[in-house]
Amino acid sequence: MGFSVYVFAGPNDNRVFCERVREYGLRMYPILLQQPEITASDDPAAYPFCYLSPCPREDLHPYGDPLCIGSATDPLLDFMRPYFTPPALVVIGRLYCSNDVPALFAVTRPYFHRLAKWIRANWARLPTGQYIGPEAQALVEGGAKLAYFPPGVTIQRI
Q1: E strands present in 9-132
Q2: pLDDT 10s digits, 55-92
Q3: pTM for the predicted model, two decimal places
Q4: Cα(42)–Cα(29) distance, integer angstroms
Q5: Cα 19 to Cα 28, 44, 129, distances in angstroms
Q6: Is the dihedral of CA 41, 2, 7, 111 positive or negative?
Q7: Cα separation, 61 vs 72, whole angstroms
Q8: Is 11 helix (H, G, I), strand (E, B) or coil?
Q9: What three-state secondary structure class fits 27?
Q10: Is residue 129's pLDDT more than 80?
């Protein structure tokens, strides 16, 4: 279990949020440790998932082949970065804090609550419970559609 906040964001909303992440002392890492650290200017559609961590890369505990990082061994917040692929705002945006490992949760919880508080203070809450950034709201008002899956994903009802 854990805590989550779901978000819709336009490109500028995403950039502003990522800058806030950095201001709070967090780094944005991909799952595979050999890949470069993610920046606010990187396209979230190209690689939407990342971890947020207060730890420098050399303090992480990689495992596997290829080397990966994970929230069972390091203080990491999961972040699925939202993005805009016209005409869809994709709600791939999810900030998640796991409480499975109490010692790591003690480190990540304050960061999660600080980021969630910032989202709630600066973005509007939709009736469905997600939050939407100001640019994303303007895109919706201009005709963009809210999507819950990336474009091109086939949904099959079983």
Answers
A1: 27-29, 49-53, 77-80, 83-85, 88-90, 93-98, 124-125, 131-132
A2: 999 999 999 999 999 999 999 999 999 988 888 887 77
A3: 0.91
A4: 12
A5: 11, 14, 24
A6: negative
A7: 10
A8: helix
A9: strand
A10: yes
